[in-house]
């Protein structure tokens, strides 16, 4: 993966300056860059690091004085992080999974395997499953019966996809992803304490011991194109219809998506987010880490939730929220400010009571 | 899995009406139901959807006007969600794991495998492990040495069960479940900052750098009958004795159960719940998603905790709690209401101060 | 694993008393101990349990009246939990994984496997990977290309280590650990709503639908010596350089460590903790369960955070914090006390308003 500066600039839509034929083989932080590395310097405040390293070329912001920095060449772009996307794509050394179907893989004879598919050791592909062209199924993966995986997908090691899941093109699953685990849905023969407590906001009524009857998942999971799921994240099957993940959705590690959930296109969920059953999340939503959403509610398009936000009722489209329970971010800041000033308020009220009592006794 | 309406009604204890010999092969939502589907319609407010679909039969609430809906037949029950449990059980198409012991499984010759057990490809069963009749061990599962799994159990793919775990009948483990991982228990040679901070509620005293010595898990995990554990959930071994999960306990995905925890019968834990070490949870408890419980405390029988509740001290039996830290749900609602009205309170107190100061100067 | 009391005392640096030649084969709680068990009794308040069991020997606190308890012998130590560390280490019955490279393992011919390494069934080791002497790679594990694992490491079943990860000696990974999953890093072509909302603390500006471009991980993960990672925990690769975990770090189950994070030596993270991207955690830090830390911030050395704490801005060294957002533990207790007293404060202010209005009308 060695490229000239010009090749890189062409590939990522940036501009090469200086000695554009200079060859770089790796991307590095300025201070630790060697002479064959491309230093990555998108923020002027880290420019001093360049002197500490040995880079002859760097990726810089537009207008940066690359010659003044002592460089032989540079690549410049107006939005550094976006340019890094392209740069990192062409420089990614990958996982080195082999090509073809490994001798130690078990592929059902009725499965349909596309052209140029790679299936790793100890992976299994179930009956009637379909895997699209150029897809990679990593070591120790399971692809269940009747599951469909699109073209150009990449399953890292130890991913499992349950029966009847339908997944689009360019899907990426990090290690340990669980697609189409059974939904978590149980019901008591008679009304349960939880049902009563929800109706009364706190009173569960007469407490009876009851056992839980399982509601099986008859639906599976449908996932659009260009979706990525983080390590050890889990997406449950729907009860009657499929749980649905839109196009371009990105989820981080250890995310939990319950049965019947629908997630709109291009929504992004950070690590350890949990979405409870039958909840609908809009498009272009962004949740920080450890957010939670209650069951059977709606979160509108373009909602942004800060880390740790717990959404326990409907969130309107476009709102920026924070807190437990979730409120508008500005309301949260006000409430928090009030909380910090509470001890002083108690003192003020005590002083007022004393003053009043004095006034009264003065009467 | 095609049945007549009568067969279904008989199987699930409901009543078939109209053309009870009508055959249905699938359950569907009303609007998307085809002519061979059984539309599921347990809530009158979705009745309009039926007209949009092509169902000739539906599962309905008692007293529903199925003929007025243009149906040829119906199944009615007094508690629809409970009837759905039975219906979904008989209609579940399953995972299509094969029967018998796969040629690519590794089963220790000293393991005791019951009748009609299925062990999938790339699964391994350790020395002296016992697996009860009719149990299914999915692809890429590990069953450790001296572990016991009861009858009629179902391990989905990539489940691991550590050495010496004891599990009852009808156990269901979703993909990636970890039973009998080692407990997380470390101790410093001298009193640590955490021990000091707990004693003083905040002061960790002189800070010394210390390394952590590992306390190995000599216990394992004991799980009762009829337990289900969600995808990628983890149950750690006990230190001296086993961690204990009662009968009928149900856990959702990504739940964390630490060493020495005891969980009473029929308790239900939603996604991403975490229970810290040596804590005891009662029977018939229900925790919403992302709840947490501190170590070494007790949560009584029949406690209900809303999503995100963090229980940091003992919770008495029967209480309905919410919040961080957990308080009674009604107290939480009051506290929250107060918080929202705080800015107004600050204004009121300012006005009072101004009024008093005027009164005083009027004296 | 049967030892005399004297052998145990010598091995763990404690003192044997009475019949020091007495042989014990197992550690047990006092009430359930049999005649060949060593009862573990480090807290005098559980001494009554001893009479209920059949132990002839116990591990006790210094100065305990072992003869008065009717024991034939005892092991005493000044810090019982620390002594338990040594005791549990020598009594640990282990997982009984086999020795050598299993016939059903796939090891790339270019991998360098140290002396006395064990590789379990269905495990795979990639090209140029190096595994140090005496290390154990459990069943169904993946060790990626160019990864390095030190000596005396123990990977439980179904652990995955991605390409180019570098791990020190004595590493322990519980089942399902994910090392070197790809970082979760996406960028929009133009400024996103999240970037705007962060700058304005709540206003995301004009909402545009944008798709996410992936930033690939060019770095991997570097882990020091003596690290242990809990079941199903995930550590992502860095973007340009490696994510770094220091020596002696211990993590519990289901922990999420994002790209570029650095964690200092001897830091301990309890279950379900999440650390967002590019955040730096100091040395000797202790986080309770379900803590979260925002991206791009710093948590100083020796910080202690109670369970559920969400750190959203820099935390200075040595601080003991709690809450969402995190504040000093004592501040949190004050704020909480104030919250509980709020309803009374509202009443007081109402009474004051009434009194003032009466005073005014009396004028």
Describe the structure.
The structure is a homotrimer of 363-residue chains. By secondary structure, the first copy, chain A, is an alpha/beta fold. Chain A has a domain at 3-91: MurE/MurF, N-terminal domain (Udp-n-acetylmuramoylalanyl-d-glutamate--2,6- Diaminopimelate Ligase, Chain: A, domain 1), CATH 3.40.1390.10. Chain A is 18% helix and 26% strand. The first copy, chain A, has six helices and 39 strands. In chain A, the strands form seven sheets. In chain A, strands 8-11-14-17-20-25-28-31-34-37 form a ten-stranded parallel beta sheet, with no helix packed on it. A nine-stranded parallel beta sheet of chain A has the order 9-12-15-18-23-26-29-32-35, with no helix packed on it. In chain A, 59% of the residues are buried. The mean pLDDT of chain A is 94. Chains A and C meet through strand 4, helix 3, helix 5 and helix 6 of A and strand 21, helix 4, strand 22, helix 5 and helix 6 of C.
List its traits.
Trimer_LpxA-like_sf (chains A, B, C); 363 residues; flat; homotrimer; lipid biosynthesis (chains A, B, C); lipid a biosynthesis (chains A, B, C); 18% helix; Udp-n-acetylmuramoylalanyl-d-glutamate--2,6- Diaminopimelate Ligase, Chain: A, domain 1; 10-stranded parallel sheet
Outline the fold blueprint.
3 copies of one chain form a homotrimer.
Chain A: E1 3-4, H1 5-12, E2 15-18, E3 23-24, E4 26-28, E5 37-40, H2 48-52, E6 57-61, E7 73-77, H3 80-91, E8 106-107, E9 112-113, E10 118-119, E11 124-125, E12 130-131, E13 136-137, E14 142-143, E15 148-149, E16 154-155, E17 160-161, E18 166-167, E19 172-173, E20 178-181, E21 186-187, H4 193-200, E22 213-214, E23 221-223, E24 228-229, E25 234-236, E26 243-245, E27 250-251, E28 256-257, E29 262-263, E30 268-269, E31 274-275, E32 280-281, E33 286-287, E34 292-293, E35 298-299, E36 304-305, E37 310-311, E38 320-322, E39 327-328, H5 329-340, H6 342-362
Parallel strand pairs in A: 4-5, 5-6, 6-7, 8-11, 9-12, 10-13, 11-14, 12-15, 13-16, 14-17, 15-18, 16-19, 17-20, 18-23, 19-24, 20-25, 23-26, 25-28, 26-29, 27-30, 28-31, 29-32, 30-33, 31-34, 32-35, 33-36, 34-37, 36-38
Antiparallel strand pairs in A: 1-3, 2-7, 21-22, 38-39
């Amino acid at each position: 993966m060695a490229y000239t500066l010009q090749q890189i600039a062409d590939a990522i839509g940036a501009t090469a300056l200086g000695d554009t034929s200079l060859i770089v083989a790796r991307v590095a932080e300025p201070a630790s860059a060697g002479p064959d590395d491309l230093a990555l310097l998108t923020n002027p405040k880290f420019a001093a690091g360049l002197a500490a390293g040995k880079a002859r070329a760097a990726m810089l912001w537009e207008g940066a004085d690359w010659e003044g920095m002592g460089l032989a060449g540079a690549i410049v772009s107006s939005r550094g992080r976006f340019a890094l996307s392209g740069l990192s794509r062409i420089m990614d050394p990958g996982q080195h999974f082999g090509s073809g179907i490994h001798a130690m893989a078990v592929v059902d004879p009725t499965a349909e395997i596309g052209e140029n598919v790679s299936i790793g050791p100890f992976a299994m592909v179930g009956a009637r499953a379909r895997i699209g062209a150029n897809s990679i199924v990593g070591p120790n993966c399971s692809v269940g019966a009747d599951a469909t995986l699109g073209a150009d997908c990449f399953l890292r090691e130890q991913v499992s996809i349950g029966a009847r899941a339908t997944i689009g093109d360019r899907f990426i699953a990090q290690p340990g992803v669980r697609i189409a685990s059974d939904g978590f849905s149980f019901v008591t023969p008679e009304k349960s304490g939880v049902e009563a407590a929800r109706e009364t906001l706190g009173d569960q009524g007469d407490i009876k011991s009851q056992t839980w009857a399982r509601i099986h998942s008859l639906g599976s999971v449908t996932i659009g194109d260009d979706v990525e799921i983080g390590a050890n994240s889990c997406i449950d099957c729907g009860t009657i219809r499929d749980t649905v993940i839109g196009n371009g959705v990105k989820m981080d590690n250890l995310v939990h998506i319950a049965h019947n959930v629908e997630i709109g296109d291009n929504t992004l969920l950070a690590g350890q987010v949990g979405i409870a059953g039958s909840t609908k999340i809009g498009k272009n939503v962004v949740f920080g880490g450890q957010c939670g959403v209650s069951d059977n509610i709606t979160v509108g398009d373009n909602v942004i939730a800060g880390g740790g936000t717990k959404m326990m009722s409907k969130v309107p489209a476009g709102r920026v929220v924070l807190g437990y329970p979730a409120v508008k971010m500005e309301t949260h800041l006000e409430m928090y400010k009030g909380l910090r000033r509470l001890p002083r308020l108690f003192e003020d009220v005590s002083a007022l009571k004393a003053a009043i009592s004095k006034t009264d006794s003065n009467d």
